Amino acid sequence: ATELDEGARSTLEAAAELAKREPERNLCVLGHAGPQEGGAASGAQLAARRAGAVAEALARLGVDRDRVRAEAHRAAFARGGTVPAERSVTVVVLPLP
Fold this sequence. Notes:
- It contains two helices and three strands; from the N terminus they run αβαββ.
- It has helices at 6-21, 39-60; strands at residues 27-33, 68-74, 88-93.
- Helix 1 (6-21) crosses helix 2 (39-60).
- The relative contact order is 0.27.
């Protein structure tokens, strides 16, 4: 699915508030999908749609769209050993350049 539930909306509102408080920082939205979600190619497309939906939701919450990069990743992608859920989106507030 690419629809946002209530829990996701409140989390995005917090991310949008942070982004508005720190306008010099950009965000990266990583959409995740697992291999059981239609295979590698359609899973990547689903991950990209998830990331795009979250990026658009952030824009509706007042974050300039040009500050948000949306990407698709395999759910096995992880930094620091934490693997995100296959059917999820991760919002990363990027460090200052």
